[in-house]
Amino acid sequence: MRRTSSHLLLGLLLLLGLGWAMPGHADVTVAMRQFSAPGVRLQTVAARLSAAPDGGVLVQLQAAQAEVAALGWQRVGVRLDGRLYRDARARWVFDGRARLADAPGGALTDAQVNGLVSASADTVQVTLQQGKASGSAWLPLDQPSHAQISLRHWPVAWLQGLVAKVWGGRLGAGQVTADLAIDVRDKRVQSSGQFALDGVGFDTPNGKLAAGTLNGDGRFSFEQNPDGSRLAVQGGLNGGELLVGDMYAKLPSHPLQLDVAARIRRGALDVERLRVNDADALQLDGSFATDAKGNLQRLRISRLHASFPAAYERYGRTWLATLGVRNAHITGHLSGQLDWAADGLRAFAFNTDGLDVVDAGGKFGVTGLRGGLDWAAKGERPATRLAWHSLRAYRLEAGAAQSQWQTYTGSLELTSPFVIPLYKGQLRVARIDYRPTASETQRLATSLAVTGVDMASLSHALGWPVFSGTLGGAIPSLRWQGDRLDLAGGLSINVFGGFIDMTAVSLQQPFGDAPVLAANVQLSQLDLGALTGVFDFGSITGRLDGNIDDLRLVGWSPVAFKASLLAAGGGRISQRAVNNLTVVGGGGVAAGLQGAVLKLFKTFSYKRIGLNCTLHGAVCDMSGLKDEDGGYTIVEGSGLPRLEVIGYQTRVDWPTLVHRLRDAVKGNAPVVR
User: Fold this and answer.
1) CA 118, CA 124: separation in Å to the nearest integer?
2) Do 298 and 441 share a domain, yes or no?
3) 69's torsion region: left (phi>0), alpha (psi -120 to 50) or beta?
4) What domain range is 45 assigned to?
5) Can you tell me the distance from the alpha carbon of 673 to that of 659, in angstroms, rounded to the nearest whole number?
6) φ and ψ of 530, to 5 deg
7) CA dihedral (97, 101, 104, 110) positive or negative
8) Residues 181-193: tens digit of each pLDDT
9) Which of 502, 524, 558 is the last residue of a domain?
10) Could you read off the pLDDT of 448-490 as tens digits, one per residue?
11) Is residue 11 within 8 Å of 36, Cβ to Cβ?
12) Rounded to the nearest 5°, which phi and psi values hold at 598?
């Protein structure tokens, strides 16, 4: 018998070596502080061998701690009970049970063990069975570092120790069936074979990589040495869920082909080759790398082709939701490339022969998108064209346009101005200079102009009361900082015979759930007759000036502003407008004018009208032309009968004030709440 055969038992078959070394007819008790063999080390070992009534030897073996390098086992408790005997062909046979404690994944807590040593065949065979899970290993006696292993319905959690040697993830539910070869020499481990997954799940401590109910099959090769590990997998997945960073994928039921080659060193992952082929949704060739904490360090996509809507439904829905785009309707095709490193974006390009993207929430949309863009941080890229049939942002729709682009030394630039039709007017884009790698304040430079936009068409699109006028303005530059757009210059609306000018405009999270708009607004010489006629507030003549400073809208609803409105040139005010102003200010009619007398007149002369409101929190601090006893003047009358409207509520709940204004515009009789 070869002396080296006792080195083949890999912990669970240590007893065979003891059996050969001890007389088979006597009770023998053996205690060892430590036993070592290639790839195996047992500590605090106690074994008892006694004669079995039906022949052979009864074996009882315990080891307080077992370490098996190839399996990644450390400090595993081992108990082995069974019978060792020779069969008719002079082979050593062992039948018994193995009970392991603290094995990764709770492996083999109570397993049936069968061992066979055949000197003539120069082979050791070990079979384990627990429930539906089974595993078999064949080892040549003259090459103890090599094994052929077959696993059937093996819980993947039982492989946690092996996986932990090269990866910090946690294996969960599911089973694996595999046939593989493994070689252990010195500090090197090599393995290759084929596998099948059934409902497999895993995750990582940082939550950036996880999977559930994965099904599939393929081939693999694995090599581990002191410098790191290499893994290659070719195969397919059929169904399941996968999370990679912000991307959640619901995998198709048909085969998704994968080809992956990766290197792992000190916890860092370098996927040198990644090929994905989902026939009707996504084809991708690329590579990526993460550090030991799972943070992305490099991403290169040399080829991407996405077919929609399948690509969106399977791979893009959750990722786009993190960007504020939910329940989008996407059709068409898109091809592209991407090169990103830890120090920033290096290159990107995309091209489409027809793409429609419409956000179901109405935040944005583009139809008939054709052409593409091509940018690189260094060098010059070929000129490209990008055109579309229509654009939509919230309720605003713009017409068809075509733009020309080219990259020079890191800057993606318009090569010529272009015009976008917009509600009988136009948006003229004179300049766009986009530098993805520049600082936030220098990343985007633009020059835009709006001319001749019809306010009747625009107000109808926005769901406002329809009023005539035109919108125009110039934006000499637009600054992009993080998720915020700052517009230099301003917009001017020629409406109601005067002007509404907006300056210091900024928009944060424009496509998020709660976009934030900030601006200062100036009103100049608005015709109150036209204004009150449109909003059906009651008739007021004269001209209105004012300011709305530090205006802030969240989700397009006001949360802060400082408004000051003044009609200083006099005019006439109707009885209904008097009533509405009275209730809005929470006050009444002063100077002894009785309700019965008020009803005798349809309109009244006024000298001035003034109303101020500073909104902070959910409260509006109200004031008017001048302070009165316990209140403030809203309307200062002139002539006879002399009219004054006094407001007495200096602090008004904002929702209550909005409710009163809506009632007034609708022609209802508002009440003070």
Assistant:
1) 6
2) no
3) alpha
4) 1-117
5) 10
6) -70, -40
7) positive
8) 988 777 788 889 9
9) 502
10) 898 999 988 988 888 777 888 888 888 887 777 767 788 877 8
11) no
12) -55, -35
